[in-house]
Amino acid sequence: MAAQIIDGKAFAARVRDKVAGHVARLVSGHGVTPGLAVVLVGEDPASQVYVRSKGRMTVEVGMASFEHRLAADTGETELLDLIARLNADPSVHGILVQLPLPDHLDEALVIAAIDPAKDVDGFHISNVGLLATGQKAMVPCTPLGCLMMLRDHLGDLSGLEAVVIGRSNIVGKPMAQLLLGDSCTVTIAHSRTRDLPEVVRRADIVVAAVGRPGMVPGDWIKPGATVIDVGINRVDAGEGKTRLVGDCDFDSCAAVAGAITPVPGGVGPMTIACLLANTVTACSRAHGLPEPEGLTA
Ligand SMILES: Nc1nc2c(c(=O)[nH]1)N[C@@H](CN(C=O)c1ccc(C(=O)N[C@@H](CCC(=O)O)C(=O)O)cc1)CN2
């Protein structure tokens, strides 16, 4: 069986079009322009690329982009002061601090300083709690993107067996909450899980989010299952070059699965599209206006 390839790049473009439509309605109907502030501390090359893409795409959908680039040795007080100013700024509806932060900064403290209503990453403990209790939350962008692709591909997810491999706060745990919210039977597997291959073989939906290149081989996959590969791992491609691979061994998984996301071009592009979706949602909520349809969990 050859799996259907779920084209995250094309899906993300459709999500951005929907966001642009909602932004246009906010601007023309209510005189409100959603604004997203992105804070980058230091010069991590991958983060610089992501932040540049975020700024460009924010402007492309008609929103205001505020970029704050701080030196790698920026102190906690200076960063917290900036967040306090962004929290108080009515033209800023979404705040994102690009991760990872330099080692001397306390990530949990910095995230806790963001106004939960502007926390478009969905990492603030208030949003984590709201999601876990099935209430209206800001939902982390990568899992939200995975959920959108799953719903689009499978329709109703209720009753399906889902296995999430990885228990990070950013992907694994919120992904499991979202799947539970859609009435899947959810298992979170991790490095201590006994007989991981057998656990994964039960799954109608596999979400791999461990950051280990090619860890999931095709013989772990139930025939016809939907495989969402969140891994973005840069590996040696010889001759001084590198290439990106996922957590799943693509060829062997694609031979068994019903559908699979590629790396690159799968989950990755959905992360930024969902950040834009969360920003327009945050703006709508801040102004007591209807939320965009199809862009939330
Ligand atoms: N505050 C946050 N920091 C980070 C997040 C996040 O959601 N919030 N996620 C990642 C990085 N990230 C966005 O910030 C991100 C990662 C990957 C992609 C993407 O489009 N990847 C492409 C490949 C790009 C490449 O060639 O390197 C793909 O998979 O096709 C977008 C955004 C960590 N930090």
Automatic annotation (TrEMBL):
InterPro entries: Aminoacid_DH-like_N_sf, NAD(P)-bd_dom_sf, THF_DH/CycHdrlase, THF_DH/CycHdrlase_cat_dom, THF_DH/CycHdrlase_CS, THF_DH/CycHdrlase_NAD-bd_dom. The keyword DNA repair does not apply. Keywords: Amino-acid biosynthesis, Histidine biosynthesis, Hydrolase, Methionine biosynthesis, Multifunctional enzyme, NADP, One-carbon metabolism, Oxidoreductase, Purine biosynthesis. Its EC number is 1.5.1.5, 3.5.4.9. One of its GO terms (molecular function) is methenyltetrahydrofolate cyclohydrolase activity. Pfam families: THF_DHG_CYH, THF_DHG_CYH_C. Residues 6-121 form the Tetrahydrofolate dehydrogenase/cyclohydrolase catalytic domain. Residues 140-285 form the Tetrahydrofolate dehydrogenase/cyclohydrolase NAD(P)-binding domain. It catalyses: (6R)-5,10-methylene-5,6,7,8-tetrahydrofolate + NADP(+) = (6R)-5,10-methenyltetrahydrofolate + NADPH; (6R)-5,10-methenyltetrahydrofolate + H2O = (6R)-10-formyltetrahydrofolate + H(+). Coiled coil: none annotated. Pathway: One-carbon metabolism; tetrahydrofolate interconversion. NADP(+) binds at G166, R167, S168, I232. Homodimer. Catalyzes the oxidation of 5,10-methylenetetrahydrofolate to 5,10-methenyltetrahydrofolate and then the hydrolysis of 5,10-methenyltetrahydrofolate to 10-formyltetrahydrofolate. PANTHER family: C-1-TETRAHYDROFOLATE SYNTHASE, CYTOPLASMIC, C-1-TETRAHYDROFOLATE SYNTHASE, CYTOPLASMIC-RELATED. Belongs to the tetrahydrofolate dehydrogenase/cyclohydrolase family. This is Bifunctional protein FolD. The lineage of its organism: Bacteria, Pseudomonadati, Pseudomonadota, Alphaproteobacteria, Rhodobacterales. The gene is folD.
